[in-house]
């Protein structure tokens, strides 16, 4: 039985397909959908991610055995059991038929209609009307099929049902109001039955069917468009003038650059529909929000630590300003030193943990040290956390690594604590309790991922100027309409 | 008839050892003889008992509402379906067909004892329907086909052929 991790942003209907399949098959699937395990727009652009998943898109699956897959349908197929995939050659082909049908017939019009109502795509009346007609056609086809069939393939739920239900999910939630869906009773019956199966419910929760057709959310759209003016203008100019003269273009670029420079903090890039959908989700709450303000400014200490001498400046600053009510100091030790083999692998273990704990960086500082050599090493460290408890328990996502370590809260006034802080922060000293020589140290402090992420995107697209337009191409291909629809349809942007 | 049905039900719910069931009286009411000498009388009573004994109580409904609807259809089976006249057959089929427009199962979103007993009870009617009739009562036919394919339900009854492609398209509306 497959076991692994599914990388995705939260509430992604593409990921739902795999998650529901896993519910049926019993595949053990961990979902990494929020920081630190996964940050959409960051994690999926890191070199490590791209080497496994060259498109950098989610959902993406990595098995515990290292097996990697992208494309949601392939992942769902892999996580299914034979009953879901179809038990005869015919059934298997029919499953594939409906899966392809969902992708090519449902998703394009569904996106074109629903995205504007979510405020993540510009509204275009003609495009929406055309999408509505296509949705009607698709529902009619399904309705006809479900006249005589309880489920799409055979007499039980298959991957076909899972895929088509997930593809219809946004439609049913946002726009298929009772009057619109009333002509398709068979589809409604089948859809409601599916979403009420325990395996669907475990993933989708309670699905509330649309009561009133959602309309274009102009306000949200505006909020979601950090650089609204610029690309729109560009687009218009491009359309009117056909091909622009290179020189004109040059001038335009120049102008836009200036404009951007004036803005205080230009966002790194234009959002695509996925990021926008993410942005429109309720924000996860700050797990440290309940703590009273502290006088100890962790960032200031980190700056001192990075830029000045550790023993003579940073550590004295630490003890002068440390707030024992607002912060706590912990000693941690890797529990399975016998499993540590090559030192570079052990180092990856530490940096991997730091990456997964990315969101904690604002509220924690740590120095973690690898001692010893190949096949005889140990890992231990000193952690400074906001609050008095182990921060890991504050968020489920932080718990991935912490169970592999033992944690001991240090008495701030003890000599032991003073010594450990000094030795671990400075990476020098006796390290009496360890009994192995210092090998390498790693510091958990600054959130570097954000800056890196932008740089990488720029690299990928060649220049920042190109970025918005390139993204738009992707956007249109993904969201507007089926590729084989007759020409002349307006683009959604 | 009730005896074979109850023995199929025993298998469906996964009871290994067959119970001692006989019929009594002119109307052939089933009677279950328990080991301790006590007995249970009546189709619905005995089948509910079998379900409980097999620890498949989800077949009696999981929510309050589903349990009530299961009971409703068990009662329907006894009072309306069993021993109904030819005239009543069409009424029953029409009622059921209407009821099943928006439902896959008779009660809730999963199979229950109601589906099984209604299936056993209506089998002789469905198997005699002409193709045209089956199309007329499309929702009943679809439900029937689904239940007869449900693992473990059919047992003593022959499968009824259901055409997926409609012959008499005109009946659709
Ligand atoms: N056909 C793919 C589509 C995946 C996809 O488009 N993923 C988007 C999220 S909605 C993504 O990860 N985009 C990131 C990017 O383009 O950088 C699938 O079904 O898995």
From TrEMBL, chain A:
Residue spans of biased composition, Basic and acidic residues class: 221-242, 250-264
Region span, Disordered: 221-276
Domain of life: Eukaryota
InterPro entries associated with the record: EF-GSTs, EF1B_G_C, EF1B_G_C_sf, Glutathione-S-Trfase_C-like, Glutathione-S-Trfase_C_sf, Glutathione_S-Trfase, Glutathione_S-Trfase_N, GST_C
Single Gene Ontology MF annotation: translation elongation factor activity
Keywords from the UniProt entry: Elongation factor, Protein biosynthesis
Subunit structure: EF-1 is composed of four subunits: alpha, beta, delta, and gamma.
UniProt protein name: Elongation factor 1-gamma
UniProtKB/TrEMBL annotation, chain B:
InterPro entries from the UniProt entry: AIMP3/p18_C, Arc1-like_N, EEF1E1, Glutathione-S-Trfase_C-like, Glutathione-S-Trfase_C_sf
Cleaved signal peptide residues: none
A Pfam family recorded for this sequence: Arc1p_N_like
Annotated GO biological process: positive regulation of DNA damage response, signal transduction by p53 class mediator
Superkingdom to which the source organism belongs: Eukaryota
Domain GST C-terminal: 49-173
A Gene Ontology cellular-component term: cytoplasm
Name under which the protein is recorded: GST C-terminal domain-containing protein
Origin species: Silurus meridionalis (Southern catfish)
């Amino acid at each position: 039985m497959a076991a692994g991790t599914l990388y995705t942003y939260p509430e992604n209907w593409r990921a739902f397909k795999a998650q529901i399949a896993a519910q049926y098959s019993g595949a053990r699937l961990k979902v990494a959908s929020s920081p630190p395990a996964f940050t959409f727009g960051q994690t999926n652009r890191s070199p490590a991610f791209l080497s496994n998943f060259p498109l950098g898109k989610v959902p993406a699956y990595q098995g515990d055995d290292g097996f990697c897959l992208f494309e949601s349908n392939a992942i769902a197929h892999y996580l299914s059991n034979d009953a879901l995939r179809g038990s005869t050659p015919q059934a298997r082909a029919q499953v594939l038929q409906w899966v392809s049908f969902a992708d090519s017939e449902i998703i394009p019009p569904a996106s074109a209609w629903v995205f504007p109502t979510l405020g993540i795509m510009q509204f275009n009346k003609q495009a929406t009307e055309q999408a509505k007609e296509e949705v009607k056609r698709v529902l009619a086809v399904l309705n006809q099929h479900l006249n005589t069939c309880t489920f799409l393939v055979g007499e039980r739920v298959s991957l076909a049902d899972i895929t088509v239900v997930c593809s219809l999910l946004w439609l049913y939630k946002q726009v298929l109001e009772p009057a619109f869906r009333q002509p398709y009773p068979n589809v409604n019956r089948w859809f409601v039955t599916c979403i009420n199966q325990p395996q669907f419910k475990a993933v989708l929760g309670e699905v509330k069917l649309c009561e009133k057709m959602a309309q274009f959310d102009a306000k949200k759209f505006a909020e979601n468009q950090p650089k609204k003016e610029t690309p729109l203008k560009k687009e218009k100019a491009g359309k009117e003038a056909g091909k622009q003269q290179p020189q004109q273009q040059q001038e335009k670029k120049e102008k836009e650059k200036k404009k951007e420079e004036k803005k205080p903090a230009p966002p790194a890039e234009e959002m695509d529909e996925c990021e926008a959908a993410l942005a429109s989700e309720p924000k996860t709450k700050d797990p440290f929000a309940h703590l009273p303000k502290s006088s100890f400014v962790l960032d200031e200490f980190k700056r001192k630590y990075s830029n000045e001498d550790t023993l003579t400046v940073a550590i004295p600053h630490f003890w002068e300003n440390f707030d024992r009510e607002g912060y706590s100091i912990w000693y941690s030790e890797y529990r399975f030193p016998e499993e540590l083999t090559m030192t570079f692998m052990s180092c990856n273990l530490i940096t991997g943990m730091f990456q997964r704990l990315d969101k904690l960086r604002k509220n924690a500082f740590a120095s973690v040290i690898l001692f010893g050599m190949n096949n005889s090493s140990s890992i231990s460290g000193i952690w400074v956390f906001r609050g008095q408890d182990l921060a890991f328990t504050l968020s489920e996502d932080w718990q991935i690594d912490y169970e592999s370590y033992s944690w001991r809260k240090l008495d701030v006034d003890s000599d032991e604590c003073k010594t450990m802080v000094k030795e671990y922060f400075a990476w020098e000293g006796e390290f009496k309790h360890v009994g192995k020589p210092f090998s390498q140290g790693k510091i958990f402090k600054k959130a570097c991922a954000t800056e890196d992420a932008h740089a990488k995107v720029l690299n990928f697209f060649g220049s920042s100027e190109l970025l918005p337009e390139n993204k738009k191409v992707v956007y249109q291909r993904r969201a507007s309409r089926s590729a084989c629809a007759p020409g002349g349809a307006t683009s959604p942007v | 008839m009730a005896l074979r049905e109850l023995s199929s039900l025993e298998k469906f719910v996964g009871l290994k050892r067959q119970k001692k069931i006989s019929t009594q009286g002119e109307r052939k009411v089933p009677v279950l003889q328990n080991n301790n000498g006590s007995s249970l009388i009546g189709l619905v009573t005995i089948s509910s008992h079998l379900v409980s004994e097999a620890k498949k109580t989800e077949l009696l409904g999981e929510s309050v509402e589903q349990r009530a609807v299961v009971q409703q259809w068990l009662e329907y089976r006894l009072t309306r379906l069993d021993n109904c006249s030819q005239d009543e057959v069409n009424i029953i089929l029409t009622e059921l067909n209407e009821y099943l427009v928006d439902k896959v199962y008779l009660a809730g979103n999963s199979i229950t004892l109601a589906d099984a007993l209604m299936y056993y009870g209506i089998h002789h009617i469905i198997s005699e329907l002409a193709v045209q009739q089956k199309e007329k009562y499309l929702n009943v036919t679809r439900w029937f086909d689904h239940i007869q394919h449900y693992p473990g339900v059919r047992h003593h009854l022959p499968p009824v052929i259901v055409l997926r492609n409609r012959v008499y398209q005109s009946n659709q509306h």
